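Tutorial handout. Part one gives the primary structure; part two gives the three-dimensional structure as tokens.
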Amino acid sequence: MNLLFKERLKRHQTSQLKYLRLIFNDQFVIALIFLIGSLGFWYSNFLETLTNSFWWAKIVVALIATILVSVGHLATLLENADSTFLLAKEAQMNEYLKSAKKYSLIFPVVFLVVSLFIMYPFANIAAEMKMVDYLIFASSIIVIKVAMIEIEALELFSSKSYRYLILGLVFAIEVLALYTSIYGALLVAAALLIAVMLQSTTGKLFNWYKAIKKEDARSFNVKKFYNLFTDVPGLSNKIVRRKYLDFIVNRVKLIHQNTYLYIYSRGFVRNNEYIGLFFRLVVIQTAILFFVKNVYLSAAIGGLFIYLVGFQLKPFYKQYANNLMQKIYPIVNLNKTKDFQKLVITVLTIQWIISLVPIFYIYGSTLYSLVVAGVELLVELIFGFILLPRDLKKIDE
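Part two.
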């Protein structure tokens, strides 16, 4: 069973590397560097405003830690056919799950170490946590994560789920430990891990349906993330009829020349993935701009998010470019690219207008507001009239 998992892991990693190479291209890496640098600068300025401790800081630390520990699930790499072809090996599933648990802990533990390291300055200043206490607290979080992966494996031998109950208990324990004794968190975490590891699955039936369903859900969520950047075969998006947005798409006149514009606008409004992506990025951009009070940083963040939204919309064009039925439309190919260009520019303009709210709120009617808004508008024009047409031409080729 170990050899089977290693074989599947090798195939899984090959697939992941293929998508990661497509995601982390030159343009995205540059945008990511700017985003990390901007957030780092904002975090540094935010820490400088914390001149004393706050009673609620430890609750915030516990809440963030609970959110962080919830990242990452057990990756069993099981497939639909396993319920039939591996049924004879059900007694050896514990051996298979041991390998799965080791692999599943790599990303969450690395993620926790990096995230907790970043959170330490806030915990040190606002919550007055010394380094030794914070290291003990961080160790308890990592131990809890190991226990949660073990619990996920145990749940595959039953029909029950304890994930949300465990997260609630984790938050309560962390708050009590932070306000009483920091060693209590580590002791409770260790006790939880030992109690879970002492649980035996001997004589219990492996719940194949539940295990395969959970792995499919985990794999689907990963593919949804990849699909934001590139096409993922076999991934379908949910289409929702949003009648309340008809006032936007109804502005497109129903004439022959607007065939593609009508299709694109309707598709964007009804596609959960792309309209959801737009709203999420706009909300994040708006929230950051409300807190940043440096004109250069605001301009960089505003321009970056304008570019990110436009960049993420490019795969939407491929959905229709690869559709065989659109090739029989009695419309010249030039209209297809121009109409998509109109859609992207319209979406980016709406984003730009929304971003003006935090910009003018922070800087008022000053030259600084015009600089930030001007940089965003410049990025929109460069992307919409120079970069996007070039990329669409490559897709059609």
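Part three, for discussion. The two ends are 46 Å apart (CA to CA). The chain has two domains: 2-226, 243-396.
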